[in-house]
Design goal:
twelve-stranded mixed β-sheet, 209 residues, alpha+beta, 25% helix
């Protein structure tokens, strides 16, 4: 679990083109540097005492703390100035070549640069229809930001994007797929053979103005 969790953190940082995560006593720290998230701490195999000490020391607004635990197990660690983020799930799969094909009326493209695989599906007119990213880290490929435009849903485009990313990851030497799935996204990934390994929850520090 700790190994897969570490892969997810490292690959997520690659996909987002962020600085490499830093090892800290409680897990990993990423300097995200975005208005909605300044810093992310991911707790790997945490205990309540260590978690509480970390949270009490954090003072920068929009700092995020995540762990592979149920939300109710984490909630007692956080004072009211911390808000829960949308729940997710850590999922994984052994990578296999994808049989997905792009539907008529769409074109697809994929490229790999600096450890980031990007896939895009467009309409015949060139309008964006679906996209996704993946970060390569060791033998793992971490999928991120798999998005289908609402006007193009229920046409299998999410599966096409996942297939494009998977085939490119296999070509780059990856053997394992890892991702953090939203509640709606989990259903798609399960149809593609992905398995839930753990819940993935977090809180963001939002002090009163």
């Amino acid at each position: 679990m700790t190994r897969t969790g570490r892969q997810w953190v490292e690959g997520w940082a690659v996909a987002r083109r962020l600085p490499r995560p830093v090892d800290v006593p409680w897990g990993l720290r990423i300097d995200v540097g975005q208005p909605n998230q300044a810093v992310r701490h991911v707790l790997l195999d945490p205990d309540a005492t260590t978690a509480r000490e970390l949270i009490a020391s954090l003072t920068e607004p929009t700092t995020c703390v995540k762990a592979f635990l149920p939300l109710d197990a984490m909630r007692p660690w956080f004072p009211p100035t911390w808000e829960p983020v949308d729940p997710c799930f850590l999922m994984a799969v052994d990578l296999r070549p994808s049989p997905a094909r792009t539907p008529d009326g769409y074109t697809a493209a994929v490229e790999t640069a600096d450890g980031v695989v990007s896939a895009r599906v467009r309409t015949a007119d060139g309008e964006p229809a679906a996209s996704g990213l993946a970060g390569l880290t060791g033998t793992a490929c971490v999928y991120d930001q798999i998005i289908t435009d609402p006007a193009h849903r229920r046409r299998g485009l999410g599966t096409v994007v996942m297939g494009l990313l998977t085939d490119a990851a296999l070509a780059a030497g990856a053997t394992e797929g890892v991702l953090g799935a939203t509640v709606p996204g989990r259903a798609l990934y399960e149809t593609l053979g992905w398995k839930v390994l753990a819940p993935l929850n977090g809180f963001v520090y939002r002090p009163a103005a």
